[in-house]
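We modelled the chain as a single entity of 240 amino acids. Its sequence is:
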Amino acid sequence: MKTRLQKSIEYEQKYAHIPRNYNDRLIYLYDTLHLNPAINAEILQKRNDMINTLEYNSLKIVLYEDPEGSPRPRFRLVNRKNFANQALTNPSFVHVYSITGASDQSFMRRLVTENDFFGIQHLIYTPSDIIIDIFKATPSSFNRIDTILAEIGLIDPITKPDWDNAGKKYSDMFNSNIWIDDNLVKVGTVRKFYSILPRVEIYLEYLNMLYNKQQAISVARAINDSTDIKYFGKNKGEFL
């Protein structure tokens, strides 16, 4: 594995010539890509078309359960024979797994199968933004005033689950159930609150199509299926 110093040196070798200032970087691109007034007009036209064509769909899911974070992964030996040598020479010999991943996936799959409120005809494959609001049970030690203040969002938790573990747990549950993979997320937010009704509220916004044909081809390869993969093209909306 490369050290941080090695990575830093390689980074400078590859990118030191690129301006760090935003405006200077645009000028650099203009010169490097040999742009001209005609191409500028095409860029502006496509920009306007994308703004007028691309839009987000919304989805909300509420899970009535005590919010949790994703537990630390567990490790187990696949085969106990000669385990020391095999584990040293073959990384796949050690199986890394989540102790709750399978049950979480099964739960979300049942939720999707048994409820027709999602309004989704296929797995989401487009860029997505997600907000995960976790509502921890209001502590019984709170007095009446603090209980009300907590319910209206003026007293928030500073306890576990950690925001990143909660985000991982609930976004992983969407994989292969709501969307193809959580690498689609371009903006993710986790917020923690108190409530006398513990729950998890998930707000998802996903784009109505991919940005270009290259992304569409990449998605089709990833899922081994090009059916109904829509992207922004010359006709402002094309399918592979």
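As a brief sanity check on the tokenised model: The longest helix spans residues 37-53. Helices lie at 4-15, 22-32, 37-53, 83-89, 101-114, 144-151, 163-172, 213-223.
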